[in-house]
Amino acid sequence: AQTVTQSQPEMSVQEAETVTLSCTYDTSESDYYLFWYKQPPSRQMILVIRQEAYKQQNATENRFSVNFQKAAKSFSLKISDSQLGDAAMYFCAYSSRTGTASKLTFGTGTRLQVTL
Amino acid sequence: DTGVSQNPRHKITKRGQNVTFRCDPISEHNRLYWYRQTLGQGPEFLTYFQNEAQLEKSRLLSDRFSAERPKGSFSTLEIQRTEQGDSAMYLCASTSDRGDTEAFFGQGTRLTVV
């Protein structure tokens, strides 16, 4: 079974600064997807960024980028130019390409605070 | 279509009572998932539907839990004889089957069993 570990329960960043959230995972599969989801307080979870394991190039979405290290099974999220609206719970998630379609295995989350 | 809709948003029930939650996925999505999220944890997979067929159930889904998706549209999750340990946020998500892996989540139903 796959597992996802987020070792930072809480992180804090000043507005306009850069922060990196860590995620490691364990799997015996070679083909899979990795995701970062954002869950603002009392609002639904939304996709921030996704990475396909067979792609060596790290995914980027505007101010969000990942550092995907497949051999190390590491998948960190970098948020540049942090904004107050980035404050939320961030979940790292894994999805197999061969198992149940789009079934997600989540980490325990990192709560990001953004300060002025 | 404004996204995945879940009702009710909050439910308080006494131990031993039955509760039912509803999820309306994005209309063109034929895959629907239920997850449970307890305080301080990430969501955990409960069950998955492809159209009206329930194709996978987690070990977390005890025999007190039942889910349906009649006609492949909305889904219901029923918990019978609720226990305090059932208190959690129940999340619904949907995806298309076009190879797009993005899951769209509802706001969840927060269940409190007293």
Task: Give a description of the structure.
The complex is a heterodimer of chains A (116) and B (114). Chain A is mainly beta. Chain A has no helices and twelve strands. The model of chain A has no long low-confidence stretch (mean pLDDT 95). Helices cover 0% and strands 52% of the residues of chain A. In chain A, the strands form three sheets. In chain A, strands 2, 5, 6, 10, 11 and 12 form a six-stranded mixed beta sheet that branches. In chain B, 0% of the residues lie in helices and 49% in strands. Chain B is built from no helices and eleven strands. In chain B, strands 2, 4, 5, 6, 9, 10 and 11 form a seven-stranded mixed beta sheet that branches. Chain B has a four-stranded antiparallel beta sheet with strand order 1-3-8-7, with no helix packed on it. In chain B, β4 and β5 form a beta hairpin.
Taking all Cα atoms into account, the compactness measure Rg of chain B is 13 Å
Number of helices of chain B: 0
Q: Which sheet architecture does the biggest sheet of chain B show?
A: 7 strands, mixed
Helix content of chain A: under 10%
- Helix/strand structural class of chain B: mainly beta
Secondary structure blueprint with pairings:
The complex is a heterodimer of chains A (116) and B (114).
Chain A: E1 3-5, E2 10-14, E3 19-21, E4 24-26, E5 32-39, E6 46-52, E7 60-61, E8 64-69, E9 74-79, E10 88-96, E11 105-106, E12 110-115
Parallel strand pairs in A: 2-12
Antiparallel strand pairs in A: 1-4, 3-9, 5-6, 5-10, 7-8, 8-9, 10-11, 10-12
Chain B: E1 5-7, E2 10-13, E3 19-24, E4 31-37, E5 44-50, E6 53-57, E7 65-68, E8 75-79, E9 88-95, E10 104-105, E11 109-113
Parallel strand pairs in B: 2-11
Antiparallel strand pairs in B: 1-3, 3-8, 4-5, 4-9, 5-6, 7-8, 9-10, 9-11
